[in-house]
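Inverse folding, one chain.
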C-alpha cells in the first residue's frame, strides 16, 4: 500500500518561513502530479500548488510569489517552501500524489500537517 507522510508544519510569526515535505512510500515505482491543498476551520479545502512530473507548476493566486513547490523524483518527495507567511495562510496542509505502481495509477493523500501563523 501507499503512504504519504507530511512534515515541517508548526507555529511561526507573520513574515517568517516554513518548508513542508511530503514523502511517498510503499509499493510505488514513481509519481506523476504532486501537490498541496489546505483547509482552515469552517472553510472548504483549497488548492494551493501542484507540480507535474515534468516540472510544470501551478499556484493559487494568493500564494504566488511567496510559495515555491518543488520535487525530488528519485525520492518521491514534494516540498512547499512558504515565505512571508500571513495569518490567512494558517490551515492544515495536505499533500497528494498520483502514484504509479504495480496496478492502476491512484491518487493518494497525506494525513495533514498544521501550520499556524500568529500576527
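Residues assigned per position:
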Amino acid at each position: 500500500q501507499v503512504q504519504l507522510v507530511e512534515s515541517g508544519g508548526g507555529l511561526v510569526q507573520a513574515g517568517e518561513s516554513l518548508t513542508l515535505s511530503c514523502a511517498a512510500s510503499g509499493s510505488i515505482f514513481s509519481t506523476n502530479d504532486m501537490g498541496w491543498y489546505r483547509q482552515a476551520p469552517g472553510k472548504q479545502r483549497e488548492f494551493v500548488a501542484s507540480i507535474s512530473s515534468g516540472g510544470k507548476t501551478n499556484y493559487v493566486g494568493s500564494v504566488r510569489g511567496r510559495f515555491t513547490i518543488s520535487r525530488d523524483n528519485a525520492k518521491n518527495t514534494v516540498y512547499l517552501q512558504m515565505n512571508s507567511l500571513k495569518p490567512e495562510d494558517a490551515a492544515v496542509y495536505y499533500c497528494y500524489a498520483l502514484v504509479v505502481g504495480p496496478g492502476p495509477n491512484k491518487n493518494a493523500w497525506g494525513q495533514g500537517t498544521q501550520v499556524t501563523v500568529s500576527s
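Residues 96 and 109 are 4 Å apart (CA to CA). The radius of gyration is 14 Å.
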